[in-house]
Amino acid sequence: MGGRRHHDGEGAERLARGLGWFSLGLGLTQIAAPRGVARMIGLRGNDEDRKAMLAIGMRELASGIGILIWDHPTPAVWSRVGGDVMDLALLGRALNSPRSDRNRVAAATVAVAGVTVLDVLAGQRLSREGNGVSIAGVEVPARAIEVRQQITVRRSPEEVYRFWRDFQNLPRFMDLLESVRIIDDRRSRWVARAPAGASVEWDAEIVEDRPNERIAWRSLPEGDVPNEGVVYFATAPADQGTEVHVELHYQPPGGRLGAVAARLFGEEPGQQVKGDLRRLKQVLEVGEVLHSDASIHRGMHPAQPSGTVPSKIMQAQRGGAP
Fold first, then answer.
1. Which of 37, 83, 97, 176 is the most exposed place for a label (fewest CB within 10 A)?
2. What is the pLDDT of residue 237?
3. What are the DSSP calls for 33-95, one per residue?
4. 80 pLDDT band (50/70/90 cuts)?
5. Nearest of 268, 279, 270 to residue 301 by alpha carbon
6. Neighbours of 159 (CB within 10 A)
7. Alpha-carbon distance 75 to 263, whole Å?
8. What are phi and psi of 63, to 5 degrees?
9. What count of other Cβ atoms lies within 10 Å of the Cβ of residue 194?
10. pLDDT tens for residues 248-268?
11. pLDDT tens readout for residues 181-225
């Protein structure tokens, strides 16, 4: 039984990869020659058809990228199914238009219907084969994104823990986080920015709280972004401050396809968390986020913290005399 399930899983992966390459090829063709593709399937190839082909081509390209770059491409495959439904609706309208070549439109409809069957089959097989991971004792679906980052902060574990435990401090260094509202001792309401100017919200609860050691949390049902996380605080070697370790699992809006879109908008999850930790270091060590306008970045970004902090600043932060 286990061998057959493994074989079926490999077959589903191969089918998904084939669909991914098909999406890339089709998307590139539609973007390169939108009028030609429109005429080939029986449309007139006017400006409206050209814009439709470009939009469909971009969607196919995004789906193909999502299928090919992720180890678990299930959400990207299902996004193809949604695209197929939209394509069939477009072709259905074209069939009823007297200005379309109905024979060509009918042939294109049959072809899209056949691909839809393959997409649904691949999505069903991948969904059955999906495996989960666990963090803080809670199962997270395999389609979730995992991020692990760490940094050393020249403050004691007690100070870093106390600052982080007050969740209302988190927007001070988490760039995409707009606000955190405390509901009670264990629950809070989070609002964050999403790609393309959207916003997302969710309620979270603390599932483990060891003062000065670790905090683990998870989102509650019905939130826009299901997520789990844990942050560890450990004394750095030679008593040089605190090592802050962050582990995060989350499902981006739109699943894996949403993560691909986030990367295209310059919001790669690992780099985002890395930047957040740099800002945390600066807030705790210097009292504010130091910005750099280096040309290799889009817009302002946190400056790379140095290994040491000027003694006068450290003394000022601790309330001592220079």
1. 97
2. 92
3. -HHHHHHHTT----HHHHHHHHHHHHHHHHHHHHHHH-SS-HHHHHHHHHHHHHHHHHHHHHH
4. confident
5. 279
6. 18
7. 16
8. -65, -45
9. 19
10. 987 765 555 455 545 544 456
11. 999 999 999 998 865 566 788 999 999 999 999 999 999 988 877
What is 133-318's CATH number, 1.10.260.100, 3.30.530.20, 2.30.40.10, 1.20.1250.20?
3.30.530.20
Structural tokens at position 150: 């760490």
Q: Is the pLDDT of residue 61 over 70?
A: yes
Q: Which H or E run contains 137? A: none
Alpha-carbon distance of 143 to 256, in angstroms, equals 7
Element (H, E) at 147: strand 145-153
Tell me which DSSP letter residue 171 carries: G
Residue 310 CB: number of other CB atoms within 10 A? 11
**Euclidean distance between the first and the last CA atom of the chain, given in angstroms as a whole number:** 72
* CA 118, chain centre distance (Å): 26
- Amino acid identity of 283? V
- Domain positions in the chain are 2-129, 133-318
Largest Cα span, the chain: 86
Task: Extract the tokens encoding 278.
Answer: 């740099």
What's the rounded Cα separation, in Å, for the pair 104 and 284? 66
pTM of the prediction? 0.51
pLDDT of residue 171: 95
